[in-house]
Write a structure and sequence with these properties.
The structure holds two protein chains of two kinds.
Chain A (H helix, E strand, L loop, with lengths): L2 E5 L2 E5 L4 E8 L5 E7 L4 E7 L6 E3 L2 E6 L4 E6 L8 E8 L8 E3 L3 E6 L1
Parallel strand pairs in A: 2-11
Antiparallel strand pairs in A: 1-3, 3-8, 4-5, 4-9, 6-7, 7-8, 9-10, 9-11
Chain B lengths: L4 E3 L2 E4 L5 E6 L6 E7 L6 E7 L2 E5 L6 E5 L5 E5 L8 E8 L9 E2 L3 E5 L1
Parallel strand pairs in B: 2-11
Antiparallel strand pairs in B: 1-3, 3-8, 4-5, 4-9, 5-6, 7-8, 9-10, 9-11
The chains are: A mainly beta, B mainly beta.
């Protein structure tokens, strides 16, 4: 059974701090790892990672995948109050598991002014 | 280009009743997946429809069923509601089943069973 574990589950920081969110996984026939930001309801897409060691970057957010050690990190630099949200990590396995996404519990990030 | 829309946004039902939730997929997307997100948890996969056929199912009982229509919109039906069915139900659409396509989520339907 595919499994995703995120840590920490909760994090409180001050504006301007840098945070690192962790995601480890076990999946049959790994295809991709995705990061989503969920503020109220709809998870919004951040990154999709398929190859090890290649950093993806979008503004202050960046993410990297290590397929040997089976984990990914999401970095947010110079945090702002608008970054407060639940960050979800999900993995997709191969054909035997369809195209379902297996999600972790999420990391609740709170950025205080 | 429209996103994924779900209806209704909120719903309160009584235990034992039946409910139908609806999802209109993003324009051009032919694959729809449904997820259940309990409070404080990550979304859990219910099932997926591709070109009107169910082609993947998570660990949910048969009282959770679905449909996909020719225009790729979808319904999730839940019979004999239980208190534990209270959750946010998310619909996600994508173009095709392969992992290199992104998944767009709707804002969900908050179902409360009393």
């Amino acid at each position: 059974e595919d499994k995703v574990v995120q840590s920490p589950l909760s994090l409180v920081v001050h504006e301007g701090d840098t945070v690192t969110l962790n995601c480890s996984y076990e999946v049959t026939n790994f295809r991709s790892l995705l990061w989503y930001k969920q503020e109220k309801k709809a998870p919004t897409f951040l990154f999709m990672l398929t190859s090890s060691g290649i950093e993806k970057k979008s503004g202050r957010l960046s993410s990297i995948l290590d397929k040997k050690e089976l984990f990914s990190i999401l970095n947010i630099t110079a945090t702002q109050t608008g970054d407060s949200a639940v960050y979800l990590c999900a993995v997709r396995g191969g054909e035997t598991s369809g195209s379902r996404l297996t999600f972790g519990e999420g990391t609740q990030l709170t950025v205080n002014p | 280009e429209t996103g994924v829309t779900q209806s209704p946004t909120h719903l309160i039902k009584t235990r034992g009743q039946q409910v139908t939730l609806r999802c209109s997929s993003q324009s051009g997307h032919n694959t729809v997946s449904w997820y259940q997100q309990a409070l404080g948890q990550g979304p859990q996969f219910i099932f997926q429809y591709y070109r009107e056929e169910e082609n993947g199912r998570g660990n949910f009982p048969p009282r959770f069923s679905g449909l996909q229509f020719p225009n790729y919109s979808s319904e999730l039906n839940v019979n004999a509601l239980e208190l534990d069915d209270s959750a946010l139900y998310l619909c996600a659409s994508s173009l095709g089943q392969a992992s290199y396509y992104g998944y767009t989520f709707g804002s969900g339907t908050r179902l409360t069973v009393v």
